[in-house]
Amino acid sequence: MATPGLIRTIISPGRYVQGQGAISRLGEFLKPLGSRPLIVSDDIVWGLVGHEVQTALQSAGLPLTREKFGGIPTAKEIDRLVQVIAANDSDVVVAVGGGSTMDAVKSAGFLCGIRWVTVPSVASTDAPTSALAVIYTEEGAFEEYRFFPKNPDLVLVDTQLVARAPAAFLAAGVGDALATWLEARATAQAHAATMAGGLPTLAGTALAELSWGVLWDNALPALDAVREHVVTPAVEKVVEANTLLSGIGFESGGLAAAHAIHNGLTAAHQTHGLAHGQKVNIGSVTQLVLEGAPTQEIRDFVEFTTRVGLPNTLTEVGLKVTDEDDLITVATAATAAGETIHNMPFEISVGELVSALKSIERFSRRVRSDARLPEPVAYAHAQRVSSVAL
Q: I need a labelling partner for 24 at 20 to 30 A (CA). Which of 139, 259, 342, 389 fits?
């Protein structure tokens, strides 16, 4: 529960820029922040946008220095980037890519005491706007959150770049963002603290709820548009919901069970090929079960997220109801001291969480059968979203 006298607060990035072709103006928005930028990107993303970034920096009279990202935001990779920043005397570091790249860059930028910028190549998480990073072990398991005293100085999202990426990335972002309202309302009910360092403000909670509404109205047509690699008003709305609304909403509205369950799932090796938002969606369904939410609310959520292309059964994330030891490991990690599951308005034991995780398999299968939606199958490697790009 909340500490007596805890303040209310909201945090956000210094500037948010979104639109088709926005990457061509990167130099314009970057120049006020520094004169010696270091661009960090993996080879896949750089192959897609390298020329555009180079042209944008040249037009602003900025030099181009690019460093390859190692793939996973580990403590070792962050320390390596710190050394690269120091060697180049960079005064601003720019992440071009997915959530993993951005988390590593934010961490390195903070340690070096310079400004940092995020340029997401996909709208698969709300990491671009946040003042925190998720750090993983070399094996890909969740290790810790790192918190920073400020958000990125600039977030620049080119929606045409987002539309060029596979639709699975956008769907993963929807999974991450849908959890925002579920967790924010739980945090508000519990009068618990948020990652912004205080009680949620009305604004933070309202943005979380707005994100939810935008996604229910626009996610399906936006995904259809992205499958054709085109940008429509629905795409613009979903990108903003996935990135800005969810970003401020989770950070200043509060996290609860869904993201803690995600973190627990990373302890099971079977889930390591899955995207952040895919695992978060399992957390959202499970949180609804733990809350004893109305059956119709859970049914609607399962049906909608199935249509989006998100997993809502253990089978789809490589687990089974009979994997007792693995599920206990997941639940133990999710309920560890300091985890956000303790923002729920009631206590949740390891046994209760294991039971809830097991229950979603049969329930979700029934919902999908009633709605004549595809039966759950284990996600093939080709269906998983690469952690390098994320």
A: 389
Spot the catalytic one: 91, 259, 326, 381. Answer: 259
Q: What is the pTM of this model?
A: 0.92
Active site residue 276: yes
**Tens-place pLDDT, residues 81-102:** 999 999 999 999 999 998 899 9
CB atoms under 10 Å from CB of 138, counted, come to 11
**8-163 has which CATH code?**
3.40.50.1970
List the CATH code of the domain at 166-383.
Answer: 1.20.1090.10
Alpha carbons 73 and 260: distance in angstroms, whole number: 18
Q: Is 191 annotated as a binding residue?
A: no
Q: Which of 153, 158, 276, 326 is catalytic?
A: 276
* Ligand-binding site membership of 276 (annotated): yes
* List 153, 158, 176, 326, catalytic entry: 176
Residue 132 annotated as binding site: yes
Q: Where are the domains of the chain?
A: 8-163, 166-383
Average pLDDT, the chain: 94
- In the three-class reduction of DSSP (H, G, I as helix; E, B as strand; rest coil), residue 218 is classed as helix
Ramachandran quadrant class, 195 (left: phi over 0; alpha: psi -120 to 50; beta: rest): alpha
